[in-house]
Amino acid sequence: MPKLFYIACSSYSGxxxxxxxxxxxxxxxxxxxxxxxxxGNDENFLCSCGEPLKSCPFFGAIRDAFRDARLPFDYSxxxxxxxxxxxxxxxxxLNAGLPLIHSNRAESLRDAVVSRMPGFAGTLARFDRANLTxxxxxxxxxxxxxxxxxxxxxxRVRHLSRIPELDIAAAHLVRDLRGVVLSDINxxxxxxxxxxxxxxxxxxxxxxxxxxxxxxxxxxxxxxxEATDETLATLHRLVGLxxxxxxxxxxxxxxxxxxxxxxxxxxxxxxxxxxxxxxxQQDLATxxxxxxxxVRRDPDHPVSRMVEHYFSS
Length: 313
Ligand SMILES: [Zn+2]
Description:
alpha/beta; binds zinc ion
């Protein structure tokens, strides 16, 4: 049975680094984000192997497999995303996290209702088939046994878990929220308060969805950078592989990874701590205030332990 290892996290949490590190294991294959890439149809957009995405032989094999299976395929949208309708908000109600409710039971009930609605049942079955075709083709092409899906959203795990042919394990990758907030400020134009609240909500969603699973683990980005081989060994064992240390060079292994800008840089691993220098005192105070008030409200929440991990040291 093909194994799928899912990485759930907020953006800017180091998941592209983790994808590259996992990909160096000879039994592991990943493409990073598994739902397509917005600039995928741009002739100049490069796969991490150095070829334009549209000429990459690996993605060419996926495209051909989709064609043979009569599945739609596009480089900006592989047809693997569980998106029932084009409207983001409606899609969320139908398919992802229910706003305000935050309950696994309510979401399972909703999933059961949606899966029986005329029109949606067939679409969901097609998404399942597209995901399985993608994973099987990637594994066959690379000769690996474990496929890593770094698509971030925890709700995707719920959907993939319906596919009986997949054996799924998952990691919640957590990075110091001050680092995430700095990236949100610089790249998304968010303010510190909004970004902190989003981080808390996203970690809560991941913790809730992965909470009931047997093969799930929480790992910290900073530990991955500072104790790389030990962290990798834990993940390798979780998916039933013999641990292999990082060989010291990402480029030694064949890779076709879609992710953010770090993906084409060198192989040196050091935790990005620019927030220590670049966050203003005011933003630091805001982040601390919002995060500590979360912990005071709900000290036993799994996310409170993550906040304390960063703020008590
Ligand atoms: Zn490639």
